[in-house]
Automatic annotation (TrEMBL):
Database matches in SUPFAM superfamilies: POZ domain
Name recorded for this polypeptide: TD and POZ domain-containing protein 1
PANTHER family in UniProt: SPECKLE-TYPE POZ PROTEIN (PTHR24413)
BTB domain span: 287-354
PROSITE patterns: BTB (PS50097)
Pfam families registered for this protein in UniProt: BTB
InterPro entries: BTB/POZ_dom, SKP1/BTB/POZ_sf
Amino acid sequence: MKRKKHDNKYAIAIYLKRGKDDIDLDIALDFQFALLAEDETVLILSTTAETCIFTKKTLNGFYLRADDIKRFIEKQTTHPCNIKVVCRMWYGEGKLIDIGNCFSLTRLEIETFCFSWTIKDFSSLNFYKKAKVLIKSHLNKPLMTFILYLTNEAESANEILNIDIMTHQNTRIATFESSIQDVDGNKHFCGKEDYSIQGKGKIGTFKLKQTKQELDDSKNIFLPNNVLSLNCECTICTGVYLTINEKHDFGVISSDSRTEIFKSLPRIKSSSLQDALISMYDDSILSDMELRTSTKTFRVHKNILSARSPVFSAMFQADMKENAMKYVDITDLDDDTLDKMLIYIYNGIFEVHHWESASELYQAANKYQILILKQLCSEFLASWICATNACEILMLADTHDDEELKKCAQTYILSEKEMMCSDNWKKFMNDNLQLAAEIMYLKCTEQ
């Protein structure tokens, strides 16, 4: 799959490419692509209008418009980021000989990071003065640069706020969204855009919905102490990092079945172990244990939980009442956190979108000693540190002896001088004297 600009819309391009072979002849094929929903129903179907000729350098395929992809993702309730594509190929007018199936898995390298951007002395921003922020990776290498500047709107005298988005590594796709945080901590959405690029450099320009004049007119709300606070989230795709052909057998499909080829298609299930395990969880197939919160019961499998968590393993092997009664009361986790933990246990999928839920999942992973999940939560929290949560994340890291996360929180607090003058910091010092003393010691040793 490939994403590019087409008809002024960003789209996903799905195409066939002839592989390396020793055949000197061109190959004539008809083919269809379909995007399947989670229940295997066809949501998007594209068919060649005529037979395509494949030379050794030819690409043939379809462009799927962004609006179609958006509608497709909205219908995906369990795993909205997963796209299942079915392709059928046939040639000739002969009788039906065989049906060929090939199950493949492609994973894209995706990185999502969130950051708070504080633009001080906002009123002095003009057409010549720009604000810039550099985002580094967890390896301390330059990742992205964002540049805020003003331009004039052609039809009026409005000063438009623009953000140029630059990447320092090879990037294929990027999504950027931003919101303004007001004096009460509320977020006001500025917009969201998708971009396509091949390589490094400028990805695109993001225009905020609010003009400079609109912010100045409400400066008591949006510009406390003449400071503009932006909350930004950026997702970049740097390409494919894993492609696996899981199962295949070859054959030919007669073109007689062309018009009905997908309507009559039986439900196709991927043969991957991950899909099979998550299906066992979703459908409670042969479950032999229940995990009960105060409001919901989750049917699970003792052997799978035991393989993933030493705590569950010890619980189910010991002579405990839970083992005999076939249920365990989980009183300290809410439904959403327990569900996210079980999805990871069964399928290795890390589904977290906000720092609050990451914090809850972090504590659950620590309790049940699911160390990789704990590390994923830790890395997510480190990327979400901002003025409103830095102290909470610092306390969380200290409680669970997470030195890496603790260092990230300390570094952020030290870099935000205004934070140490706030009422929140005074309260933090009163309640956490030892942690506050460590911060002050680090501040003194830096000078």
